[in-house]
Design a protein that fits this description.
The complex is a heterodimer of chains A (166) and B (565). Chain A is an alpha+beta fold. Chain A folds into two domains: 60 residues, Arc Repressor Mutant, subunit A (Orthogonal Bundle), CATH 1.10.10; 82 residues, 3-Layer(aba) Sandwich (Glutaredoxin), CATH 3.40.30.10. Chain A is 43% helix and 12% strand. Chain A has a five-stranded mixed β-sheet with strand order 2-3-1-4-5, covered by helices on one side. In chain A, strand 4 and strand 5 form a beta hairpin. Chain A starts with a helix and ends in an 11-residue tail after the last helix. Chain B is α+β, with helices and mostly antiparallel strands and 565 residues long. Chain B contains 14 helices and 24 strands. In chain B, the strands form six sheets. Chain B has a seven-stranded mixed β-sheet with strand order 16-15-21-20-19-17-18, with helices on one face. In chain B, strands 1, 2, 3, 4, 5 and 6 form a six-stranded mixed β-sheet that branches. In chain B, helix 2 packs across helix 3, helix 7 packs across helix 12 and helix 8 packs parallel to helix 12. Classes of the chains: A alpha+beta (166), B alpha+beta (565). At the A-B interface, helix 4 of A face strand 9 of B.
Chain lengths: 166, 565
């Protein structure tokens, strides 16, 4: 496990905040994913050992929640909302546009490693559907055209002017 | 309204019938005491309660009390009005409290059960005709008892792995799994080997072993027993026999001095499986995997199928004649066995006395105890040998004393019961110097050297009793007939004792028990038939203070610890 020193410090700080160690399982998973980008098998075992649990206890959690990534993603994660409002407003077309722009499928990472495209459930901005979240930044009213524009922005180094806010 | 009969009892009313149960008893257990079945899947009396199957939903009510005055609210007939909760409650996680009212037969409860059954059956495959669980499947039973009788489901069923090998002895069919989590809780709580879990979510939830690990602890087959459906099956029993053809015979696990209670499942003289029999004072509802394999010894390659005299197979009476002739020459020593039943040990003592007070030796068989249901003493009946007076001290691990006696020329004939003399520390040279009468069930190294071989029966082929580490006398019954050339051990020993001593000897468990009850203080007043199915603890007296090898295990604390700590 090659976690950054900051992450390790956060992990040490978060565990004592719970009455039982086990309760820190989800916060630890989030911290590890923030750091490494995904939850490797090794991470499952590392967290289990950290919390005096068996690996299966963490494995259950990781597979239960779709927000945990089991494989490394691209440098950016494009999350396209597909809940009702966005779906009706054309989020499937938005996703198609991203897929075409980056030449990869859903839940896949583009060949250049730039992005991973995935559907998510409601991003809580139904009034401005369809919405897309790129890393931590929300983009509203993203139709196919806007998606292509965003793709161009991403391609240019630095991408859309938004450093991920951790 | 209903006052508790004792301080620790609470009275609840289930379907109009009152029952007093110990405080903390849940409603499923309370109802079962009234003979009322509340169907359930995830609840198991020996595991923690999770309440995830929802099958045990019942209606619950409490006597109403006026909040202002604190007085009971009465109905039109003067009885206390019952405040029924608008929604059903799960019986497994509801502890009985005084005055609680439960209804299990109302329309609401019926609808709940139908609803739960319908959801459980949505993704359940219809492969009952090839499913090993058929006939003992809770899902099948409750579908007929509480289901709606027909399916409204026209969509495609989920597809999940059908043949996952969870471990060397357990196979998993995920499509049949109803996610009750009994197996997961068992692994966490009993053998403390937390390897099973549910991965994924919703209708994709799948029982899995952590990748790279296996369900391979020595208690893994208990998950098969407690699986309410056919999801977990035993690799050994799988596809061998429909359960409704099998006859259950109560028996005892002979692998250690724990004496786990078992059922032996047999059909037409062939044993198909061994499962635990509930005994809350001994093994709860569990048993070790190693004990379940013991039935294989019945038809083992090296099984003794005939008595032998001078190396030739002969009928049992002829072999006995040869043995008696040898014993009459005197200078006899006996190697008894803690694997023999109580009755056999008693008769062996008679043989020793009739053979001129022949010295009796015993060999200890020890291993490492697992703290659960396999103890350090790997014989089922060492306490029996002490109680019957066959021996009066704990046996050594090897027969050095006997070896010395042979070397000194004090032994001419050796009667051996179920022991491997070479493994017990005698040398080839020593065995050459004695003539051996060997009573056993299987061929052992050096058996061909024996002058007389008496073929006996395994625990599955005879009735008798063992005394476990708690000094609990437990009986086992005959499940299958023995091989044609073998004879009842009791008959063989009784004949030897009778021929040598010139007086008749009892040769059935019941008649031996009559003699034992008369001669042995600890067994006074007992009969074989009178021993209950869950056994009876006898007064051990000073024997209890001997330094037995067993460590603490389920429902057992070593005497020294129990007294001291």
């Amino acid at each position: 496990m090659n976690l950054k020193p900051e992450t390790l410090a956060k992990i040490e700080a978060v565990i004592p905040r719970y009455p039982v160690k086990r309760s820190a399982a989800l916060p630890l998973l989030h911290l590890v994913q923030e750091d490494a980008g995904y939850i490797a098998d090794e991470a499952v075992e590392w967290i289990a050992a950290k919390l005096d649990l068996q690996p299966i206890n963490i494995y259950e959690l990781v597979t239960f929640y779709p927000m945990f990534r089991r494989k490394p993603g691209g440098r950016r994660i494009i999350k396209v909302c597909r809940t009702l409002s966005c779906a009706l407003a054309g989020s499937y077309k938005t996703a198609e546009a991203f897929k075409a722009a980056f030449n990869c499928g859903l839940d896949e990472t583009s060949p250049d490693g730039e992005v991973t495209i995935e559907f998510v459930e409601c991003l809580a901005s139904c009034g401005t559907a369809p919405v897309v979240m790129i890393d931590e930044t929300l983009h509203e009213k993203v139709d196919g055209e806007r998606a292509r524009a965003l793709a161009v922005e991403i391609r240019q180094a630095g991408g859309p002017a938004s450093a991920p806010t951790a | 309204m209903t006052a508790p009969a004792q301080t620790d009892l609470v009275t609840v009313v289930i379907d109009g019938k009152e029952i007093a149960v110990p405080k903390g008893t849940n409603i499923i257990e309370a109802a079962s005491r009234l003979g009322i079945e509340i169907p359930h899947y995830c609840y198991h009396p020996k595991l923690s309660v999770v309440g995830n199957c929802r099958m045990c939903l019942v209606e619950m009510g409490m006597p109403m009390i006026d909040r202002g005055s604190g007085k009971p609210i009465l109905d039109d007939h003067g009885g206390q009005k019952i405040g029924w909760m608008p929604r059903p409650a799960i019986a497994c996680a509801t502890a009985a409290v005084p005055g609680m009212q439960i209804r299990t037969t109302t329309e609401l409860v019926k609808q709940c059960r139908e609803g739960v059954m319908e959801f459980l059956l949505v993704n359940h495959p219809l492969d009952c005709p090839i499913c090993d669980q058929a006939g003992e499947c809770r899902l099948q039973e409750f579908a007929t008892d509480y289901g709606r009788g027909y399916s409204r489901f026209i969509e495609e069923k989920n597809v999940k792995p059908k043949r996952t090998r969870l471990g060397p002895r357990v196979m998993l069919d995920d499509e049949r799994c109803i996610l009750c989590s009994r197996c997961i809780r068992f692994c966490q709580e009993v053998p403390k080997d937390d390897v099973l879990g549910f991965v994924d979510r919703g209708s994709y939830s799948t029982l899995t072993c952590y990748p790279g690990k296996q369900l391979e602890n020595n208690y893994s087959l208990n998950t098969v027993d407690i699986c309410p459906v056919g999801a977990l099956t035993s690799t050994d029993f799988r596809f061998k026999m429909r359960v409704w053809f099998l006859k259950q015979t109560p028996s005892i696990d002979t692998e250690s001095s724990v004496g786990a209670n078992t059922f032996v499942w047999a059909r037409e003289g062939k044993i198909y499986r061994i499962t635990p029999r509930r005994n809350d004072a001994v093994n709860d509802t569990w048993m070790a995997d190693s004990g379940r394999e013991l039935y294989q010894q019945v038809e083992a390659e090296d099984r003794l199928n005939a008595c032998h005299a001078s190396g030739k197979p002969v009928p049992a009476p002829e072999a006995l004649q040869a043995a008696v002739a040898l014993l009459k020459e005197g200078k006899t020593a006996i190697v008894g066995s803690a694997r023999a039943s109580l009755e056999e040990q008693f008769l062996l003592k008679k043989v020793a006395r009739a053979a001129g007070g022949a010295p009796v030796h015993l060999v200890a068989h020890t291993g490492e105890g697992d703290g659960l249901l396999v103890s350090a003493d790997r014989t089922p009946n060492l306490r029996g040998a002490l109680l019957t007076g066959l021996i009066d001290t704990l046996p050594p691990a090897s027969l050095e004393a006997l070896g010395a006696a042979i070397d000194a020329g004090e032994v001419q004939t050796l009667v051996v019961v179920r022991e491997d003399l070479l493994a017990a520390g005698l040398t080839e040279a020593q065995l050459e110097r004695v003539r051996i009468i060997h009573l056993d069930t299987h061929r052992r190294p050096g058996l061909e050297r024996a002058a007389v071989v008496l073929a006996g029966l395994t625990v599955f082929e005879k009735a008798g009793s063992f005394v476990n580490q708690q000094f609990r006398v437990q009986k086992f019954q005959k499940a299958v007939p023995g091989p044609g050339g073998a004879a009842e051990d009791l008959f063989l020993l009784a004949t030897l004792a009778a021929e040598l001593g010139g007086e008749s000897m009892p040769s059935t468990p019941a008649s031996v028990w009559q003699a034992m009850a008369a001669e042995i203080a600890a067994f006074r007043g007992m009969t074989f038939a009178g021993i209950p199915d869950d056994g009876v603890v006898v007064e051990a007296g000073r024997l209890a203070e001997l330094p037995f090898v067993e460590g603490e295990s389920l429902h057992y604390k070593p005497a020294a610890e129990a007294a001291g700590v």
